Amino acid sequence: MERESGTPVLATALGFDVGGTSIKWVVRETDETVASGEIATPSTCELDVVSSLVGVFACTKAVETIGIGLAAVVDESQG
């Protein structure tokens, strides 16, 4: 993607991988990782997990896209 002037536009994305013990996160600009980290997954309640995600988001600048991966129980008979 380019601006009318021909200079590239940085597409900033924030990705989360929420696991049972940790939340891993990454910030990417176009094809470059500019920041990443890992925090403990709160075991208190779902709202505390959401608060942790919001806390990471609050430290980023101009995020255009957010992706969140969550572990889930797979019911093989239901699909």
Give structural attributes.
79 residues; alpha+beta; 4-stranded mixed β-sheet; 4 strands; 16% helix; globular
Structural summary, described in words:
The protein is α+β, with helices and mostly antiparallel strands. Helix content is 16%, strand content 38%. It contains one helix and four strands; from the N terminus they run βββαβ. It has one helix spanning 46-58; strands at 12-18, 22-29, 32-40, 65-70. A hairpin with a 3-residue loop joins strand 1 (12-18) and strand 2. The protein is globular, with a radius of gyration of 16 Å.
What's the structural blueprint in terms of helices and strands?
Blueprint: E1 12-18, E2 22-29, E3 32-40, H1 46-58, E4 65-70
Parallel strand pairs: 1-4
Antiparallel strand pairs: 1-2, 2-3
Mean pLDDT: 82
> What structural class results from the helix and strand content?
alpha+beta
Compute the separation of the termini in Å: 38 Å
Tell me, briefly, the overall form. Answer: globular
**Largest beta-sheet characterization:** 4 strands, mixed
What strand order characterises the main sheet?
3-2-1-4
Percent of sequence in beta strands: 35-45%
**Run of helices and strands:** EEEHE
Helix content: 10-25%
How many beta-strand runs? Answer: 4
- What is the count of helical runs? 1
Q: Give the uncertain stretches in residue-range form.
A: none
Query: Radius of gyration from the CA trace?
Result: 16 Å
